[in-house]
Amino acid sequence: DQQVKQNSPSLSVQEGRISILNCDYTNSMFDYFLWYKKYPAEGPTFLISISSIKDKNEDGRFTVFLNKSAKHLSLHIVPSQPGDSAVYFCAAGSPNDYKLSFGAGTTVTVRA
Amino acid sequence: EPEVTQTPSHQVTQMGQEVILRCVPISNHLYFYWYRQILGQKVEFLVSFYNNEISEKSEIFDDQFSVERPDGSNFTLKIRSTKLEDSAMYFCASSVQGRSSPLHFGNGTRLTVT
Questions:
Q1: Inter-chain contact B105–A34, Cβ cutoff 8 Å?
Q2: How far is the CA of A63 from the CAs of A68, A110, B27, in angstroms?
Q3: Which of B49, B103, B109 would you mutate first to test chain A, the one with the most A CBs within 10 A?
Q4: B91 and chain A in contact, CB less than 8 A
Q5: Is the CB of A99 less than 8 angstroms away from the CB of B4?
Q6: Which residues of B touch A101 (CB under 8 A)?
Q7: Is A93 at the interface with chain B, CB within 8 A?
Q8: Got the DSSP string for chain A?
Q9: What's the start-to-end Cα distance of chain A, in Å?
Q10: In what order do the strands lie in the sheet with B19-24?
Q11: How far is CA B100 from its chain centroid?
């Protein structure tokens, strides 16, 4: 399933700076997008979502931007904290089905 | 905060044996799911379940797999005759609504088939 792609397997950022994670999708039927964070030996934890009727959604330090014409979304984390070091998954869903399609994940390391 | 719980955390079984993975979804959630992640690969959808029946399943979810909600709280995934390639992390998830609603995942069961 290559419908959701996270082309950067890793990202290293200094504490206090912005982390920007990118995600591209190919299925034009996707209308709901989510970001999950995953620590080792734990399940994915929901962070933030956005529906296709919006182009931005903000929750505290996390902001998701959606560019429908480019089929691209991004997650901004400002400021980055050491506890943000984790794997981040982009996921997408469509109105036609119940499943979410996941990207391969980006490992974020926040340096002190 | 309510959470999805999964047991066991790690299951080792021999090829050909049956395994049952157990999950307790969040109590007011109505939709239940199983996903899996083979080491080094993406998280993959297996099945969704609503109102005591499967609402959607992937092509991975063949006749070897079944799901059940035996009582008001548990949700189980059974693999009838395990294969080596079934080795993976299996995640249970639940959501309030079926679509446009975030899934809440458990911590997973690591299944190792030898």
A1: no
A2: 16, 18, 29
A3: B103
A4: yes
A5: no
A6: 45
A7: yes
A8: --SEE---SEEEEETTS-EEEEEEE--TT--EEEEEEE-TTS--EEEEEEETT-SEEEETTEEEEEETTTTEEEEEESS--GGG-EEEEEEEE-TT-S--EE---EEEEEE-
A9: 36
A10: B5-7, B19-24, B75-79, B65-68
A11: 20
Q: Measured between CB atoms, does B51 come within 8 Å of chain A? A: no
Q: Provide the β-strand partners of residue B37.
A: B43, B89
Q: Which residues of A touch B98 (CB under 8 A)?
A: 98
Residue B8 corresponds to which tokens in the numbers above?
Answer: 């066991």
Q: Containing H/E element for B56?
A: strand B53-57
Phi, psi at A83, each rounded to 5°: -70, -10
Q: Is A1 on the interface with B (CB under 8 A)?
A: yes
Beta-bridge partners for B88: B111
Asked if the C-beta of B25 comes within 8 angstroms of chain A's C-beta atoms, the answer is no
Mind listing the pLDDT tens digit of every residue in chain B (114 residues)? 779 999 999 999 999 999 999 999 999 999 999 999 999 899 999 999 999 999 999 999 999 999 999 887 899 999 999 999 999 999 999 999 888 889 999 999 999 999
Nearest alpha carbon to residue A105 among A28, A61, A47, A27:
A47
